[in-house]
Design brief:
The protein is an alpha+beta fold and 118 residues long. The protein has helices spanning 10-21, 38-48, 60-64, 67-70, 76-85, 107-116; strands spanning 2-5, 27-30, 94-96, 101-103. The longest helix is centred in the first third of the chain and has 12 residues, at 10-21.
């Protein structure tokens, strides 16, 4: 399981702490330096059902690029390419494995997802 995080992100720290407390093994990847691949983003998009949950809408890059207005006009491939090229745009933590697809950290949601995958 890969967990894409940003070291200054509180949600990422809470998520990795929770995973460690649950003894769930994971590979932590710095999202800014190594954003998720197009294949991983496509898989997450399929699991989430739409593009917006994949974007860090509260981030500076999202706002400075005017994506609130631009995103609805982008093709799916253009949006995924943006995410792949700029890890700051990706909602984090971004957790992906064969049977887990999570963005952001909501403990109850994570507990349900990990209980289903056991």
């Amino acid at each position: 399981m890969k967990v894409y995080t940003y070291k200054k992100c509180d949600s990422c720290r809470k998520a990795t702490k929770w995973l460690n407390e649950q003894n769930i093994p994971f590979e932590e990847i710095a999202i800014r330096e190594t954003p998720p691949s197009i294949t991983e983003l496509e898989s997450m998009l399929k699991a989430q059902g739409s593009l917006k949950p994949l974007f860090n809408t509260s981030g500076m890059d999202y706002r400075s690029m005017g994506l609130k207005d631009t995103l609805p006009n982008l093709s799916e491939q253009q949006a995924l390419t943006l995410l792949n090229e700029n890890g700051n745009l990706v909602k984090r933590p971004f957790v992906i494995s064969d049977d887990i697809h999570l963005v952001g950290f909501k403990q109850a949601q994570w507990e349900a997802a990990f209980n289903r995958s056991k």
